[in-house]
Amino acid sequence: MGMNVNVVDLGAHQKRLQVEIPAEEVRQELEKKYREIGKSVRIRGFRPGKIPRSILKSYYGKSIEKEVSSSFIQDTFPKALRDTDLKPLIEADVDEMKFAEDGSFTYSAVVDVRPSFRVEGYKGLEIARPPVRVTEEQLEAELESLRQRHAQIRAVEADRPVREGDVILVDFTPWVDGKAFKKGETKDYMMEVGKNALHPDFDRHLLGHLPGESFSFELDYPEDAPTKEIAGKRVQFDVTVRELKEKVLPELNDEFAQEAGSFDSLEALKQELRGRLEKREEEKSRSEVRKQILDRLVQIVEFDLSDRVVEREVDHLIGLLQRQFEAQRLKIDTTRFNTPEIREEYRPQAVRNIRWRLICEQIARQEDIELTEQEIEELYAEVARMIRVDVETVKSQYADSVVVEQARENRIQDKVFECIESQAVFLDPPQEAPGPQQE
Predict the structure, then answer these.
(1) CA distance 370 to 356
(2) What is the three-state SS of 49-103?
(3) What DSSP line would sit under 272-330, residue for residue?
(4) Helix (H, G, I), strand (E, B), or coil: what is residue 331?
(5) Rg of the Cα trace of the chain?
(6) d(Cα 395, Cα 390) in Å, to the nearest integer?
(7) Which is more confident, 331 or 23?
């Protein structure tokens, strides 16, 4: 399709792309649409296919022009960007569409373009790498967590009161402003005393009470409590302890190791847990190193961003937050997250995200970092597993999708980090000052 393209400079970061479709092509496309609609529509007093163009235009002119203009923009805009070598940072806003008196169709779009800059100072960065160290305390905590997961719950034979760590069955009714709060009334609620799952002070009021006993106590809720009916109020709870059970933890021995994971011995289980902890510590160390790299480069590499680009990233971040709440099926009006105050809070993170993305892409260009054929195949296989289709379907139907593009961007980012890390100067982290017992 023929077209005339012009670029108007709006500043360092924005261009106006002006596109004109010649009159002859516009005429042909309009004629085609009018012929198609003339064959299918029925207008009283005219035979199908014999309706004058002027009558069709009076009835359907606006909708036909809208359809034709959308088709022209969809077909020509990507080519116009390629021809002018404009690389938009965000989806451009198309405006000023019109069918001119000479028969041509024109439209324009404001394009936020990638700033031109070069990254310096990323080679030989001095980075403090946290040591990878697994302590005996960490190993013991992991073993204890495993014991808790394999604990057995059994009824308490003796007539004794509730203790920390017991598992109890309770009924409770909250009272707010002198009325029973039916929404919070609960029967046969099973809880582990000491977990404080309901309220930071709820569990301590249960200690010392016997099964079958009923009692009451009051709790204060903060202004920002999730349940609006009790936010900022004092709530009375009428509670009955129905049943009392206790957790029985298994002994740490070879038998437990076999039950917990088919290990030959307790020592083999400890070695497995130590290995997992080491991998976890390695990941934490790597994450800290990469955070330092990101922080340093975002700080030292200078370029400006347009407000439109930043606002679009703020939209993205707030959208992620809204989807998180919706996925948890929480009854919260997520539109209230999109306020001027919250948008302002998200602005620094939005700027940081965009700056790092552009810096990372620029380093990849400077270092000729690309994905190999094998890495691309692995990427397709990873996406196929994630969306549960075969690899060929990903290649044919999802190659240009957001999910594939995001996976590709993440792989490139990993390779950029590895490139910087391979040339970094790693320093020992600063030593903590000795305490009184260490001196």
Answers:
(1) 18
(2) CCCCHHHHHHHHHHHHHHHHHHHHHHHHHHHHHHHHCCCECCCCEEEEEEECCCC
(3) HHHHHHHHHHHHHHHHHHHHHHHHHHHHH------HHHHHHHHHHHHHHHHHHHHHTT-
(4) coil
(5) 33
(6) 9
(7) 23
Which residue is listed with tokens 């404001």? 110
Q: Each residue of 195-208: pLDDT tens digit?
A: 999 999 999 999 99
DSSP string, 181-227: -GGG-EEEEEEETTS--S-TTTGGGTTTPPTT-EEEEEEE--TT-SS
Q: How confident is the model at residue 172 (pLDDT cuts 50, 70, 90)?
A: very high
Residue with tokens 């529509």: 41
Write down the pLDDT at residue 278. Answer: 96
Measure CA 177 to chain center.
40
Is the Cβ–Cβ distance between 188 and 169 less than 8 Å? yes
Angstrom distance (rounded) from CA 74 to CA 91: 13
Task: Decide if 257 contacts 146 (C-beta within 8 A).
Answer: no
- 8-state DSSP, 131: P
* 19: β partners: 5, 107
CB contact burial 51-68 (16+ within 10 A = b; e otherwise): beeeebeeebeeebbeeb
> Which tokens sit at 61?
């002119």
Strand partners, 214: 240
In the numeric block, the tokens 């009955």 are attached to 240
**φ/ψ of residue 124, rounded to 5:** 75, 25
- The whole-angstrom distance between residue 155's C-alpha and the CA centroid of its chain comes to 44
Contacts of 342 (CB under 8 A, 6+ apart): 318
pLDDT digits (tens, 9 = 90+) for 333-344: 767 778 889 999
Q: Which two tokens stand for residue 414?
A: 């990993």
Residue 56 tokens read as 């069709």
Gap between the Cα atoms of 182 and 225, Å rounded: 17
Tokens at 236, concatenated: 């009375």
The sign of the CA dihedral 428, 433, 436, 439 is positive
Cα 330 to Cα 253: distance, rounded to the nearest angstrom: 43
Structure tokens at 349: 């993170």
Mention every residue, 6+ apart, whose C-beta is less than 8 A from residue 157: none
What amino acid is encoded at 140 in this protein? E
